[in-house]
Amino acid sequence: MSEVVGSSRADPFQAWRDVSDHEFESVFLAARDGQGWALSELYRALFPRILQYLGAVEPVEAEDVACDTWLDVVDGLERFHGDEAGLRALTFTIARRRLLDLRRRRALGRTAPRSQERPFEARPTIGADETAGSPPGADQAIGLITSSLSPEEADVVLLRVIGDLDVDAVAEIVGTGPSNVRLLQQRAVRRLARVLETEGAAR
Amino acid sequence: MNDRNDLVDEMRSGWLDTDTLDRMLAGGIHPDDAAPGYSEVAGILMAVAEGSPRRALADEDAHVALAVELVQQRSPVLPSSDRRSRRRSRKSISRGSRTKIGGLVVIGALVGSTGLAAAGVLPDAAQDAFSHVLDKVGITVPAGSDHPASSGEELSGIATTTDATGVEKGAEISSVASGGKSRAGQQGSAGINHAGLGTSPGRPPNGGTGDAHGAGDRGTSTADEASSGRDGAGTDSATVAPPVPTQASNPPVH
Lengths: 203, 254
What we know:
Order of helices and strands of chain A: EHHHHHHHHH
Oligomer: heterodimer
Radius of gyration of chain A: 18 Å
Number of strands of chain B: 1
Number of helices of chain B: 11
Largest sheet of chain A: none
Order of helices and strands of chain B: HHHEHHHHHHHH
Helix content of chain A: 55-70%
Largest interface: A-B, 64 and 43 residues
Shape of chain A: globular
Number of strands of chain A: 1
Structural class of chain A: mainly alpha
Strand content of chain B: under 5%
Structural class of chain B: mainly alpha
């Protein structure tokens, strides 16, 4: 999760967004029947997103949790009814539940209580040595989001940006109301702007 | 410059409208097109939206192979029309089967209960009920009260309380045990007749008749006491035994 690919619409990460509803349906039905090419399409569309989200919130276990999530999604294809946005929402719902399960197990296995645990691992922010004006990489950008925002704000922003999910879907995934999600994302963006301004002034 | 900063502060104090925020969070606003004060935020969000881990697809083959295997392990997916018809036929079959099984259970219960009633092995109440019902359709089965003694305790009680001895005792017990169907002791009646002649084996030639008579009396009285005079036990024995006067000096043999 340390290396990232630069922005490119040709990246497989973007493939899902370009798929029309009709194409999605044919891919989905073939994947449900177990056809390798279709499962591969789904994988390319979903897995990088899951891995990026999990890498942001749980870097150490991200790959294992992402793999479990992928298999859960495949297992649930037979029961799924909906469009590609629905499948994305389902995928992130499963990923987040897997993540919560992991943390619960970890908390149960811990013998000595910790005073405070930060839900996101600290990541490097954009340093002063970086050239001003050059676009930050995804890793640095995620590092800035997770280190600057509250866990709730960061979660909402990451689900919206990485998962490409709308407000209602994020609200359902995090277990809150849409208005609360709107409030959190507004605060998050304003806080980010303030932090970046401060860092820019320091540079 | 001051004017520009004032404008930025003013815009920052107000919230972004929903549409602008949605596009920004989708990574769809280029930093140059962002609202004043938000260009860096737009760049950050765009970088997140468009970047993906380089190793994200490194295990694609293995993960897709696992997925194919997982799907194939499940039952094969049928077209929805096939699945519907299969589900419907399964439903109708199960409905017919349930009716047939229910009918067979009822018939089996009736036949089985009738058989048990004919054998006379049902509990008294059930036996009486079956006897009554079957009697109406011309089938005779024993009533509950006709039951032979079924417990060893009951037979043991008869064996220890009866005054009869030898063949008589055996006949009595056998008769009770079989519900009166046993023919045991018929041969012994001749022995009883011979008892008076002192030829019955195992009996004293002289005291035998007295014993027999005493046994008959005692058996009758015991049975009478137990059954409030309704029992006829011992009557035959007393009749069959020769009328020899009771000797007080000869206590009945147990």
